[in-house]
Amino acid sequence: MKLSIIGGTGPQGKGLTLRFAKAGFEVALGSRDETRATEVAESLSSENPNLVGSIIGLSNSDAIAFTDKFVIFSVPWTGHNNALNEIKGMLKDKVLIDIVVPLEDGNPRKVAMPPEGSATEAAQAILGPNIPVIGALHNVSANTLNHLDKKINCDILVCGNNLDARLETIALLEKLDVKAYNAGDASSARCLEAITPILIRINMSKAVPFSHAGIKIWPLGE
């Protein structure tokens, strides 16, 4: 199966590229700068010889054309809306998985939600009702994603207004050997995205003996 990651040259994009390639996907790492995307793809492949041939670097438009269905959107919040406006005409018949968290400029321990309520809802407003936007992967550490010797140490909460796309995304993410849960419609992203700065604050704290922690849904009594 083929998928694309727009903003794939950043830490989370690189980690997801590696994880999906390891799971058997062909991954197109997309960027405005195709040369940069190619360089990063070649670097990831050289560092992980078993993944050679599974990762390619392309322009954003070519990466979107490459994917069977899923476009993972992983750009800095400051460029979120502009980048979506640039690619929205290319997303017919695709599902956009928006993993962006609107962190406050200069302070990753605080959230700065847009007028729509969340980055996921802002993306849906920009793309319109005919392109499903799914919010997911907000609370996963980029550090963890980039260490393939470690299992992803948290569960994934998935939201969006299109139920079929939501369930398809859950099935996709579970290919990464994680448990993903249906968290409801796009308005749930207001809660899910806001968890990230709390995790960042905890992980940065000298009062706890760990870092890069995530969240897990745990049955009562276990």
What does this structure look like?
With 222 residues, the protein is an alpha/beta fold. The chain has eight helices and ten strands. The strands form two sheets. The chain has an eight-stranded mixed β-sheet, with helices on both faces. Strands 6-7 form a two-stranded antiparallel sheet. Helix 4 packs parallel to helix 5. It is globular, with a radius of gyration of 16 Å. The relative contact order is 0.14. The model has no long low-confidence stretch (mean pLDDT 94).
Task: Write a compact overview of the structure shown.
The chain is α/β, with parallel strands linked by helices and 222 residues long.
SSE order and pairing:
Elements: E1 2-6, H1 11-22, E2 26-31, H2 34-47, E3 55-59, H3 60-66, E4 70-73, H4 80-87, E5 95-98, E6 103-104, E7 107-111, H5 119-127, E8 133-135, H6 142-145, E9 156-160, H7 163-173, E10 180-182, H8 189-204
Parallel strand pairs: 1-2, 1-4, 2-3, 4-5, 5-8, 9-10
Antiparallel strand pairs: 6-7, 8-9
Helix pairs in contact: 4-5
Features:
single chain; 222 residues; alpha/beta; 8-stranded mixed β-sheet; 36% helix
Give the overall pLDDT as a whole number: 94
Can you give the helix content as a percent range?
25-40%
Instruction: Give, in spatial order, the strands making up the sheet with the most strands.
Output: 3-2-1-4-5-8-9-10
Order of helices and strands: EHEHEHEHEEEHEHEHEH
Unreliable stretches (pLDDT < 50, length at least 5) are: none
How many strands in all? 10
Strand content: 15-25%
Termini separation comes to 36 Å
What best-fitting shape do the alpha-carbon axes yield? globular
Category by helix and strand content: alpha/beta
- Report on the biggest sheet: 8 strands, mixed
The helix tally amounts to: 8
| CA-based gyration radius | 16 Å
